[in-house]
Amino acid sequence: GFEGPTCETNVDDCPGHRCLHGGTCVDGVNTYNCQCPPEWTGRFCAEDVDECQLQPNACHNGGTCFNSQGGHTCVCVNGWTGESCSDNIDDCATAVCLNGATCHDRVASFYCACPVGKTGLLCHLDDACVSNPCHDGAVCDTNPVNGHAICTCPPGFTGGACDQDVDECSIGANPCEHFGRCVNTQGSFRCRCGQGYAGPRCESDVNECLSGPCRNQATCLDRIGRFTCICMAGFSGPLCELEVDECQSSPCANGGFCHDLLNGFSCSCLPGFSGPTCQLDMDECASTPCRNGAKCLDRPNGYECLCPEGFEGLLCELNVDDCSPDPCHHGTCLDGISSFSCACAAGFTGYRCELQLDECQSQPCRNGGKCIDRINAYQCLC
Fold first, then answer.
1. Which subcellular locations apply to this protein (predicted)?
2. Which domains does the chain have, with CATH numbers?
3. What's 282's DSSP letter?
4. Is the peptide bond before 155 cis (omega within 30 degrees of 0)?
5. pLDDT tens digit string along 219-237?
6. What is the pLDDT of residues 253-272, one digit of tens each?
7. Which of 162, 274, 304, 362 has a 20 to 30 A CA-CA distance from 124?
8. What is the pTM of this model?
9. Long-range CB contacts for residues 367-374, cutoff 8 Å, separation at least 24
């Protein structure tokens, strides 16, 4: 690969090279390489490059790529031309737009912009829509073949000129929902809704609760054409507008006075009664008011003492005076408890001092003297 006195020169290996198809030889050291043109590849540029696979967009606008030796070919779709199908064919070059129409090129076609009064593909027909043959609101189009008017009717109309009203109420199912009554109108219809419904087709349930008809914080339930109020405790009426009078049932017992409250009541009890409804008779005997062992009987708003023998008074606090009237005949009465005793005067004895002592019984007179009994004394008749 080298030559010269000192081997300083690289031997040119390119003479007689084998590079094909216009490939350029590039010398190396004891070898060479081939620089190939874009259409060829391989060591000696002998292999064809498939441009259709290497460049998927080699053909534009839908063209089909076909590989060939040393190149490729694009088969263009209608309307395009050029090596890579990138040029749009000017269809207006061969088009004939009549009556002063303007030609606009498209892809594989053209469009004639007609002057007023003309129509058709080539503007060769008189435009029937100029005379406004269609009813108001309809869209008029011209048949491109014969120039006749074609009326596209708005909803609610029919006929060639869209001048006939469609009775929406008589064709097909009732357009009004929830049994609404359909009323035909010119070009349309309207619905007369039943109670509780609204909307163009009676499709909406009227929410009667929106106006807040229920009072006193009641809950409103929407119904079909009506509403129901669920009242808070203590209220009644269709709108919960009435406060319930809990006193109407006379809940207070034993003559108690009832005070109506919100969702309740209170009782003002007469003396001697207690409890939420005055149902409890207060036990006045609980404080043991009766004295001297008396028995206490509870009464409404009071009590009664049954006194044992020998006592009297409201509380049996008084000892009965058994000395009144004085039972002792000849003595002093000493009062006890349900009893008395008599301290007899001198010369008397007995339970009530009713007996006079017989001082002569002991025969005090001597020597035959006669004893005459006296009160607490005696006399001797000698």
1. Secreted
2. 208-268 (2.10.25.10), 283-320 (2.10.25.10), 321-381 (2.10.25.10)
3. P
4. no
5. 999 988 899 999 998 899 9
6. 999 999 999 889 999 998 88
7. 162
8. 0.36
9. 374/347
